[in-house]
Write a structure and sequence with these properties.
about 260 residues; D-tyrosyl-trna(Tyr) Deacylase, Chain: A; alpha/beta; TIM Barrel; six-stranded parallel sheet; globular; single chain
Length: about 260
């Protein structure tokens, strides 16, 4: 009974990424019905919506249909993934209540600070962040090491975030950042990754950090839990910020949140 009770406390969320084009209520009902059936629930705790093509404003029709389904009790909360601030404003102005936007956010990629975080704070929207540990590159094991050859980057995440490091300032500056993070991690009896996560968790509008796992390969459960056992002080943040100030502005180089996918 205790196990069943704990299971009932778990909340899960799912994603819907329709093809751009006309979106009807029937299409929305079918998609939500499939999710309800697959997850074995009567109501989706959180439905995250993503849309590839901003030129096609059918995303507003889709979200309005989703809001109707939400009103009928089949969706508890509506959320987004990788929407930029301009489109989030359009959606909010249309009267659609969004609780969160999932975006890439790390010590390397701080684009959410340019516009997204402020808008979310003002409209009671929270950020769920990913890429915060750079697919594992934000780690002691890469400090003092040469830039990894592409053949060593054996996951799509490692390749993606290595490219982000290049755009941000390059491997030499990343080494300087790891060098600044190591004594902070030692001081708090934590890991470099923990410090990177704690820094982002402390940013405005951030509700949580999504840390990827590969079951049986890399889970880091105990290490991740240490994030909640310490706080960064002003000296810690100043040491980190001094290195970050030397980096390029990714907002200018790439664009707002999610623009790299469009």
């Amino acid at each position: 009974r205790h196990g069943a009770q704990r299971l009932s406390e778990i909340q899960a969320f799912t994603k819907w990424v329709p093809r751009p084009g006309r979106v009807t209520r029937r299409m929305v009902d079918d998609a939500i019905g499939r999710s309800l059936s697959r997850m074995g629930v009567e109501c989706l705790d959180l439905l995250q919506f993503h849309w590839w093509d901003y030129a096609d404003r059918s995303y507003l029709d889709a979200l309005k249909h989703l809001a109707d389904v939400q009103h009928e009790g089949k969706i508890r909360h509506l959320a987004l993934t990788n929407f930029d601030t301009e489109r989030l404003r359009v959606i909010t102005d249309a009267g659609i209540r969004i609780v969160s936007n999932q975006v890439q956010y790390s010590l390397i990629d701080r684009r959410p600070e340019a516009a997204m975080a402020g808008f979310c704070r003002d409209h009671n929207i929270r950020l769920l962040t990913y890429g915060t540990v750079l697919g594992g590159l934000l780690s002691e094991k890469y400090h003092g090491r040469p830039a990894p050859h592409r053949g060593k980057l054996n996951t799509a995440s490692l390749q993606k975030y290595n490219n982000m490091i290049d755009a941000w300032g390059g491997w030499a500056l990343f080494q300087e950042l790891l060098g600044a993070l190591k004594p902070i991690a030692h001081k708090h009896e934590a890991s470099v990754a923990d410090v990177g996560i704690r820094y982002i968790l402390d940013r405005p509008a951030v509700a949580g950090v999504i840390v990827g796992t590969r079951l049986g390969v890399a889970q880091h459960i105990a290490d991740n839990a240490r994030v909640f056992s310490f706080t960064l002080d002003a000296e810690d943040r100043a040491g980190i910020d001094a290195v970050l100030a030397k980096s390029r502005d990714l907002m200018k180089a790439i664009g707002d949140c999610g623009d790299e996918y469009r």
